């Protein structure tokens, strides 16, 4: 399993702590340094069963500068949202855990982390 984190994020640190407590084997991806490609974001979205606007942090300064709250949330705008996530990775909701069974979760709660653990 892989976990996308921002080390400055308390939710990310909490998820890592729980993974360690459970003895999980995982790889850390600091996604602000190793920015996901468009393909990787598409893959994670498919694994999550979500759309890019569902994993976008709309309260970030970059989101406000881009006017994301006004962007359409429809299939025709999907690639525009993905481009924004690639160009501004801080907008990606965190942490995201990709489980070994091909699924993924946005692991902002202990329950979500445990859910990912049960899938690996």
TrEMBL record:
Keyword Nucleotide-binding: no
CDD domains on file: ArsC_ArsC
Stored InterPro entries: Arsenate_reductase (IPR006659), Arsenate_reductase-like (IPR006660), Thioredoxin-like_sf (IPR036249)
A Pfam short name: ArsC
Keywords: Oxidoreductase
Signal peptide: none
Gene3D superfamilies the UniProt entry points to: Glutaredoxin
Keyword Heme: no
Family to which this protein belongs: Belongs to the ArsC family.
Protein name (Swiss-Prot/TrEMBL): Arsenate reductase family protein
Organism field: Streptomyces ficellus
């Amino acid at each position: 399993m892989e976990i996308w984190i921002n080390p400055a994020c308390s939710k990310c640190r909490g998820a890592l702590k729980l993974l360690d407590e459970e003895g999980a084997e995982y790889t850390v991806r600091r996604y602000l340094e190793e920015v996901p490609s468009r393909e990787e974001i598409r893959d994670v979205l498919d694994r999550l069963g979500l759309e890019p606007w569902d994993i976008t942090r709309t309260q970030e300064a970059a989101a406000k500068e881009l006017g994301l709250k006004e962007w359409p949330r429809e299939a025709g705008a999907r690639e525009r949202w993905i481009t924004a996530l690639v160009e501004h990775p801080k907008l990606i909701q965190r942490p995201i855990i990709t489980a070994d069974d091909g699924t993924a979760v946005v692991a902002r709660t202990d329950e979500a982390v445990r859910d990912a653990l049960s899938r690996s």
